[in-house]
Design brief:
The protein is an alpha/beta fold and 334 residues long. It contains ten helices and twelve strands. The longest helix has 17 residues. It is globular and about 70 Å long.
Length: 334
Amino acid sequence: MQVSGTSPVLIDQYLRDAIEVDVDAIADGTDVVVAGVLQHIEEAGVHSGDSACSIPPYSLPAEIIAEIERQTEALARALKVKGLMNIQFAVKDGQVYLIEVNPRASRTVPFVAKAIGIPIAKIASRVMAGEMLKDLPKIDRNIDYIAVKEAVFPWARFPGVDPVLSPEMHSTGEVMGIDRDFAIAFAKSQLGAGTVLPSAGTLFVSVKDSDKPVVLPGVRLLAGLGFGIVATGGTADYLIAEGIEVERVNKVAQGRPHIVDRIQDGAIDIIFNSTEGWQSLKDSSSIRASALSQKIPYFTTAPASVAAARAIEALSRQTLDVCPLQSYYSHSHN
């Protein structure tokens, strides 16, 4: 069968709900050093510049990380990279998929350097100028704390723009939260990005079917902390069947009073809302718009929703401490 004459046909595969991983490495033609393995919190499909991520990975098993490092080294050698390279992987059902390789620095390099306390760009520049990694300061990325990068979005400056995450990049900056504990590091990153997580109040949940079991532990955590839970349609059915007390609320299309009325009345304090398909995206855009105007924390993916719930739970147990970056480094590099 002739498809297109001489021009190639590109066949893409779509991975649902995969974990995306970014790797920054430096190669000199002889050695390859992995500087950072970053696990994205939003699933693959959200632009890597818009996704929150953690160093070291907060939930990937050691054997997956080892396989990612093995593939990184093989790629660096095969591509004869001298200097920095960035690779994006996707992990699903214990399989590691390669998304893309870029033999250059990437936007994650400054975050990795700050997280591990080592001047990666400087070392890479010296490698590109002909020095060897073995003669340069050692890159030790074994840290005993977690650094979380969160993207900062300009939604408030662009009224009418739908703040949903997609393969296009929307963020205009990023912040970092560091702590020994993932949940607290995530909480600090949210604060830095201007999102103030509530300590009490009402949670609104409406998620696509494949996200219902994923988001459940997060909803349970908040219900256990005394949050009221409000949900629409299928999400309400699912949560009630799981033994969670839920107040049903109308979708916008089901007539008033509906969820957007509730948000505008100031009766909702945090929102977990993921969508699938054009119709549900359109139906929920008014929810996002009103959340934005009311400055309500809004999470559009199940993994980020669960991370937010874990952060709220951790904050209920302890207060945040403020430490200089150097205080983290000193433990690790002794």
